[in-house]
Amino acid sequence: MLTASRLVLARKRRRMTLSSLSKESGVSVRSLTAFENGHKAPSPETIDALSEALKLPVDFLTAPDLDEISTDAVSFRALSKMSALDRDAARGAGRIVVEINDWIEERFGLPAPDVPTLPHLSPEEAAERVRALWGLGEAPIPNMIHLLESHGVRVFSLASDCSSVDAFSFRWERTRPFIVLNLQKSGERGRFDAAHELGHLVMHSEHRIPHGVEAEQEAQQFASAFLMPKAGLLAQKLYGADARRILSAKVKWQVAAVALAYRIHDLDLLSDWNYRTTVKLLSQMGYRSGEPGGIARESSQLLGKVFSTLRAESIPVSVMAKDINLTLEELNLHVFGLVPTVFEGGYRSSPPVRPDLRVVGP
């Protein structure tokens, strides 16, 4: 029997209107509306047609109800400029990563959430406090995703068909912090996105709606201070740094050159005139639109360990996908493309031992 909430989720995940799903499936808009409102049950043949049009298994459409993620719980950027289709597709992707995470948490011992909520502090103070609580000192952060995972943040990739949406974050059921990252950016900007979303989780997610101009500015300031701590930059003696020194220093902090120039200017280590001149030169060198010769994108250590453990236990990833009612292709979109493309061995039917999966640090 079709589950109305899942039909709605699947349609939104695929960026479809009722009209476009009708065209793709051959089911009338009137019937689709009745299915989504729970006023009418489709035949098995109609469910098959919807499954094919939505590129999701029939089991996805007939599994138990799913609650949607509230728009107000998600840290969307430029929400007013975002189309409803883009917004809802991203929310659908976010709901699916919650399902994936639930499957993993039932079978692995994951790090407990350890993200403080500091709504009363300025972004600079909040970044300093989180650094202190996590024992980071003033040193560069080797890997943002590994750091977040070691403190209980569940990090997933944003499906490529949602690429018009930036990274976003939310606390599921007000407890478990999630960050979903767009992979179509440079490695440096991916790290900044991860720190930006951490800022939302720390300053906004439990106390304020985590979007809007003010919240976005605060998250940007948090990310800048978190990745490039004031004391660390002062120790590096970047006062009056020109483009050459900024390009050298950005290697240490693994940030975008323009972001480092902005941070130095924000700390009054660079005059307004020097800042404008430096950013203009960096833009001419291609550092405004990209990061020439930049670092590789970071990936998930935790998910990599999950798939390695499944492989060691001779459990095909297809079993995981089937349990979550996803196709392998859909699953792979949310897990940094880490699903093994070739897997040998059969499925062991005995109950798996629950491994104590730990992320050792950044």
TrEMBL record:
Query: Pfam family example for this protein?
Result: Peptidase_M78
Q: Which domain of life is it from?
A: Bacteria
HTH cro/C1-type domain span: 7-61
InterPro entries in the record, alphabetically? Cro/C1-type_HTH, IrrE_HExxH, Lambda_DNA-bd_dom_sf, Rad_response_metalloprotease
Q: Which GO terms describe its molecular function?
A: DNA binding
The record's similarity note reads: Belongs to the short-chain fatty acyl-CoA assimilation regulator (ScfR) family.
Name the chain's protein: ImmA/IrrE family metallo-endopeptidase
- Species: Streptomyces phaeolivaceus
Lineage of producing organism: Bacteria, Bacillati, Actinomycetota, Actinomycetes, Kitasatosporales
